[in-house]
Give the backbone structure.
Amino acid sequence: MSAARALARRYGLRVRFADLGDWAASQLRSEYDARAREIRLNRRVAAGLRGRQLRRFVEFAIAHELYHHRQWIGDVAPSKRKGQREAAADAFARDRLRNG
């Protein structure tokens, strides 16, 4: 089990693949649903990946959404601007990938 998936489990979050729709020019990798206590990984993105790329996508996406969960539960103070929240979640995910 990946480190991010294990952390999601400790937080009581379910992780699953789902079709997150068509976002035209941009690509939605994943989403966090606080009410469902769930992280959804975009099946459309994963379908085009194999091996190490797929594992990296899964690990990064879960870690990114874990940051949002941590904001939701008050472990991390959320920024007011969406762009800043997303950049912080990406930085958290990159750090998790580097440091486990």
